[in-house]
Amino acid sequence: MTLIRFASSTSDLKQILLLQSDNAKSALSASARENEGFVTVLHSLDQLQEMQRQSPQILAVDGDTLAGYALVMPRELKNSIPVLIPMFNLLDTLTYKGAPVKDLRYYVMGQICVAKAYRRKGVFRQLYAAHKKHLSGTYDYCITEISSRNLRSMRAHEKVGFTLLHRFSDATDEWNIVLWDWTDSV
Question: Could you report the per-residue pLDDT of 25-70, keeping only the tens digit for each?
Fold first, then answer.
């Protein structure tokens, strides 16, 4: 049984980095990427520590084992991970329900990952439910970016309630910016 809690130590952050490394797009076969999904961004410990200072990171744990994580990336950190700067800049040009996204109360899901042994057991949904529970008083929307090739992640996000905000291509991939609107259910 998994427990959802906030990261509270450097050890927690290092476990995130290990799980992230195990599920990096570059570490997986094409078949594994297609069937199990993958993460694209690899954070440094310093980056995770800065994210942790801004907002507690949410973990799913089973005893001493990290079952999954879901990272909070406030807009204030938009320049801290260079590969994400274009996404934040693009968000500033988009609208949602007629309002400029840059004026909305949102944060970016910095990354979500569930360990292979814990997939298909509700951990993904638990992590997102914790985000909504703990962050809906501060934010109205959760936004993230998903590779179009990561069909497993796209389906999982749709099941939680994310909808497509914008699709674009860059030199590396085709991307889907998806948004979870909490204003109708808070």
Answer: 888 888 888 778 788 888 999 999 999 999 999 999 999 999 999 9
Residue 186: inside a domain, yes or no? no
In the three-class reduction of DSSP (H, G, I as helix; E, B as strand; rest coil), residue 111 is classed as strand
| Phi, psi (deg, nearest 5) at residue 118 | -110, 5
Flag whether 9 is in a domain: yes
Residue 44's nearest CA partner among 21, 76, 74 is 21
Judge contact between 7 and 25, C-beta under 8 A.
no
**What is the reported pTM?**
0.91
**Longest Cα–Cα distance in the chain:** 46
Q: Of 1, 3, 33, nearest to 127 (Cα)?
A: 3
Q: What is the CATH number of the domain that holds 131?
A: 3.40.630.30
Identify which of 56, 140, 157, 58 has the alpha carbon closest to the alpha carbon of residue 106. Answer: 140
